[in-house]
User: Which sequence fits this backbone?
């Protein structure tokens, strides 16, 4: 099973990643990434899907059929570690993006539901939290969490320092209709500083019917159809990833892998003798 989508050279629209439910072999999540030059424009139709446009880096004006969001964006690199500017676009809408600088744009998509308006998600609207301890620390930006309005989409970005792990202890969210877990497909859009870096990501199930280990490089996408999906960075390279999740119920409930759940306990980190 191929779970790693390598970054492509920009096409005529600047697109470098194109993950659809059909290409991923699942039902909900779509993901596209674009590298637009200053002055370039991009037109999109949401059709029966809702979109969350994340300005990963750069400045832009974004217009939908009902709303205008001029001159948004601030950070010029995701590794500034400040929350991004984003725009939520409902289903049945169209959107025009005009790049006011070189622009790295992520377009997250999932089936649209309800009758929500287009809206701006400003940096001050993004929840910021530190998670983990020891060598399992990360900075999290909750762009579109399950307590904010949307039909299906969940969007979050995560920073992991060199030599640390994240999406860990190993956890999964691949079961429907159970009390402690929801079914959520997920994509990881990876970035590295310096750019030539890579990380190790494993996707695996309890019975090991799925067990794949990958080395995503800059702008690669890892798809997670089911199972656990930890990430480990390597020395010298900080990691950023943008997660997109969606499923039949818009709720992030997961279970830890029992063997490694102790990393959440007071037993970690362990004292080491010198």
Assistant:
């Amino acid at each position: 099973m191929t779970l790693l989508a390598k970054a492509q050279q920009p096409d005529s629209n600047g697109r470098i990643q194109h993950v659809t439910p059909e290409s991923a072999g699942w039902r909900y999540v779509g993901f596209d990434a674009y590298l637009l030059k200053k002055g370039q424009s991009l037109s999109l139709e949401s059709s029966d899907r809702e979109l969350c446009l994340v300005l990963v880096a750069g400045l832009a004006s974004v217009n939908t059929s009902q709303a205008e969001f001029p001159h948004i964006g601030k950070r010029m690199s995701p590794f500034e570690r400040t929350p991004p500017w984003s725009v939520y676009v409902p289903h049945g809408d169209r959107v025009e993006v005009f790049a006011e600088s070189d622009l790295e744009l992520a377009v997250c998509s999932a089936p649209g539901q309800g009758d929500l308006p287009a809206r701006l998600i400003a940096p001050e609207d993004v929840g910021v939290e530190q998670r983990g301890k020891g060598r399992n620390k990360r900075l999290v930006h909750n762009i579109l969490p399950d307590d904010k309005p949307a039909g299906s989409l969940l969007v979050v970005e995560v920073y992991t320092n060199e030599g640390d792990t994240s999406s860990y202890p190993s956890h999964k969210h691949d079961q429907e209709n159970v009390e402690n877990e929801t079914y959520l497909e997920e994509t990881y859009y990876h970035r590295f500083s310096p750019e030539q870096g890579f990380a190790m990501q494993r996707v695996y199930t309890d019975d090991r019917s799925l067990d794949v280990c990958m080395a995503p490089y800059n702008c690669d996408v890892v798809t997670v159809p089911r199972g656990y999906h930890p990430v480990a960075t390597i020395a010298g390279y900080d990691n950023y990833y943008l997660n997109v999740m969606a499923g039949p119920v818009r709720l992030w409930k997961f279970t830890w892998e029992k063997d490694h759940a102790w990393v959440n306990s007071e037993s970690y980190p362990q004292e080491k003798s010198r």
